[in-house]
Design goal:
The chain is an alpha+beta fold and about 750 residues long. Among the domains are: about 140 residues, Beta Polymerase, domain 2, CATH 3.30.460; about 120 residues, Beta-grasp domain (Ubiquitin-like (UB roll), Roll); about 70 residues, no CATH class; about 100 residues, no CATH class; about 80 residues, Alpha-Beta Plaits (2-Layer Sandwich). It is built from 27 helices and 22 strands. The strands form seven sheets. It has a five-stranded mixed sheet. A four-stranded mixed sheet has the order 14-18-16-17, covered by helices on one side. The radius of gyration is 29 Å and the shape is globular. The termini are far apart.
Amino acid sequence: MTMEEDLKLREAADEKMINDAFEVLLNDYLNSRHRKKVDLITKAFNFAKQAHKGVRRLSGEPYIMHPIAVAQIVCSEIGLGSTSICAALLHDVVEDTEYTVEDISNMFGPKIAQIVDGLTKISGGIFGEQASAQAENFKKLLLTMSEDIRVILIKIADRLHNMRTLDSQPANKQYKIAGETQYLYAPLAHRLGLYKIKSELENLSFRFEHPEEYADIASKLSATQASRHQLFDNFTAPIEDALKKMGLKYEIRERVKTPYSIWTKMQNKHVTFDEIYDILAVRIIFTPTSREKEDEECFNIYVSLSKLYKSHPDRLRDWVNHPKSNGYQALHVTLMSKEGLWIEVQIRSDRMDEIAEQGLAAHWKYKEGGEYSEDENELNEWLHTIKEILDDPQPDAMDFLDAIKLNLFASEIFIFTPKGEIKTMPSNCTALDFAFSIHTFLGSHCIGAKVNHKLVPMSHRLQSGDQVEILTSKSQHVSPAWINFVNTAKAKAKIQSILRHDNRESQKNGEDILNEWAKKNSIELTPAMIDQLAEFHDTKRREEFFQALGDKTILLGDKDLDELKGKNKKSESSGGWRRYVPFVKAKKKEEPAESELFVVPEKFNRKKPIYITDDNIRQYKFPSCCHPIPGDDVLGYIDNKNQIEIHKRACPVANKLKTSYGNRILDAKWDMHKKLFFDATIRLSGIDRRGLVHEVTNVISQQLSVDIRRILFTTEDGIFDGSIDLRVHDCADLKQIMDSLKEVDDLKEISRIM
């Protein structure tokens, strides 16, 4: 076969694959409840197919397969109509080809063009030179979202398909994309009620960030599948009989926790896989006899179940009478099975189930012109808060993303006003959060509150069901300490906005003081000099430096002159990171000089992994936010000095870096050979008894010959809690120690402290 014939065969195979995928999309659309605008969708498909002709993805498949797949998710998994399907098919055309938003508008109308524009990445800065492209693009997405929510729904579909095909990307890109997904897109999907998609996004992120842990949990889930099925059958058999007697049309489904949610619980609760007892949940989906009786029948089912099994008194969640702000409705009850295990049962009507699976798209009705009418009570407040944050942007990309992230709260409580009106708030909110949620004036003049008619401070944490009256005073004014009293994005954004306004006067005074000092000492100030002085006084930004000068918390003197003339050398330890000096048995190595740190050259290949070895470990920075040791899943981050920090992939700081500065992320691997020692800490708890500490130290020091650096134990009412600082070569050593300690009687929990 000639090369030309081979090429023709490949083109024919590609053409068939593309047309087959589009046919599946069209069939799914025709089977939906939307208006049948097949011609418009076909036109968008042909246009996108022509625009992307000859382009392939990293996986090797034709590029058009990606827009088709995104449109498929938009149609089948989110349940949107023709406007969204067309926008999904066209979402990369403006970014990747010579066509413009104006071209899209001329061919497909202004609404589709607006959505496509919102999905197109931007060039140029919103936050300034130091900003990350991710934060800028996310801001543009949110700006467009506040006009049309379909923008974010299509973006989530786009992200889901990218995560499903992430295998073809290099490791550093995988960490960047998985980090963004975990930090922003999964909470966003949850906030919009897309629970199924949210779970898949979390699970895929986990699989790429921690492949070994993912494989281990998936394997254990598979091994315990048969026993879970048996438990499900035994538990649901009497429930089925009860539902039949009620004359309801129903379906009972088995719901299993995802590897990610299991891993998260293992980390948070410091337990093993075998100690997690709520892996199985049961979902009852019924068809109500009428829409009016839907809520009543939910509770009738609950009453029938409580006659069969004992219910947990503190685990009844009524999302039927009090739906979540993203529209979610269901009745959650936890029942004790005959095997002695608590099992959560979720009771939903088929309408509630559709909303739970497809989120808001399931009950937003789209009009002929591509417009949508949103239920007045749904998400209006949330979208309003997003708009407020966007109207008053944070000066820093990380702060901005944190503010958005804060607002994507998952857990909600209900608060009553003095007049008995209900307001939905995030759990852990305070009285001051509540004040700002009602009105900025109320928040900024708050002096305290009455909660259930009792006087409390503004920092008081509210509980679901509290009735709250905010107390104010005209003489009260916002202070910087208030940031510590709030947990919602809206309150933090408002406080920071007021403080920034107040600070401008102080910053102006600070600039005047600096200029006067420079003039007095015959110094011609440059921006670099100001940055040097700011760093000398441990302030991160010029604004903070000017503020401190204006507030008189920094006074300029002779040391500042010496600093500008190069006579002062600032100590390394103030930079927020520690040099990793591994311990050697014979002696402790001296601190390396700054010059020993590896500096990333201009043409450095960021796609290749960096290897941390016994010889080069001193060339990298190890921040104090996490303490990775050989064997931990790690990544590299190129900082502002072009030096490399090493973080655990699960480190909270690393999660923000992956989201905000993904292009600086590197794949990092260990290549150590048990020559060096590293600090690690384990936590122990259990039942106290005489001789226990001796047994523990004997296992570590005598049996395993491991050095103990520090040991701390406390005991109360017969229960002990303690920690031990050790020196180990790697994670394998640590696992061996923890496995050996599990053999000690009365030790109930053993975990590693990050």
